[in-house]
Design goal:
A five-stranded antiparallel β-sheet has the order 4-1-3-2-5. It is α+β, with helices and mostly antiparallel strands and 212 residues long.
């Protein structure tokens, strides 16, 4: 039984990694597939698969009721972090169930494997204050820097926040509206990350979030 009960209007840090710490994003196309899934499956109306998800569906997706708001994310070779706001009852659990199931099916088909891809149930932390939300957004947006990753098999919403991304899936105004400029948030996030890493040795919770 999960200790956390998800509530509408509340924010949660969701994270998980590959079973046996295996790689779950092997090439850039895998990252793109996961991000497409984050858009396709974020709807109260069920979507069978991305194969049946047409361009028209993408156009309509912005006008249909969503399960969650995606605040920020980071996809690393063997794990992911996502910050979500639940919008509908059971939204977080349903969204992650669809996302993990759909991506696992795609991954297993592509790489000719079978069985589970992710390590058990996804992990979740309740973000119980606005200050915590701002700091977690910094940690997630810059998580690939934590692991000194860049390039082909790591991607975060940092580019969305800085205005340089082509695809936009995050409700970033939840964070950015609290800052005068993108640079002000950039300075805050980079400073916050330094503080988090300095404290991680003293905090079991933060250390666990590193998923190392």
């Amino acid at each position: 039984m999960r200790k956390i009960k998800f509530a509408n209007g509340e924010f949660y840090h969701i994270y998980n990694r590959g079973v046996d710490k295996r790689q779950i994003f092997c090439v850039p196309e895998d990252l793109n597939r996961f991000l497409e899934s984050m858009t396709a499956f974020n709807s109260i109306t069920p979507v069978g698969s991305l194969h049946s998800y047409s361009f028209q569906d993408y156009q309509l997706s912005g006008r249909t009721a969503k399960l969650v708001n995606i605040v920020c994310y980071c996809l690393n070779p063997n794990h992911y972090h996502i910050v979500l706001e639940q919008l509908t009852d059971g939204g977080v659990s349903e969204f992650i169930k669809r996302l993990a199931g759909g991506y696992t099916f795609h991954f297993n088909t592509k790489y000719k494997r079978s069985g589970v891809l992710f390590q058990g149930k996804f992990k979740a932390s309740h973000i119980d204050s606005n200050e915590y939300l701002l700091h977690v957004s910094s940690y997630v947006n810059l998580n690939n820097r934590v692991h000194r990753l860049s390039g082909r098999t790591a991607k975060s919403s940092w580019e969305e926040y800085m205005g340089t991304a082509k695809s936009l899936i995050c409700k970033k105004d939840i964070i950015l509206s609290q800052f005068k400029t993108k640079k002000e948030y950039k300075d805050f996030a980079e400073s916050s990350l330094v503080d988090i890493l300095e404290r991680k040795q003293q905090s079991r919770d933060i250390s666990d979030l590193l998923l190392e």
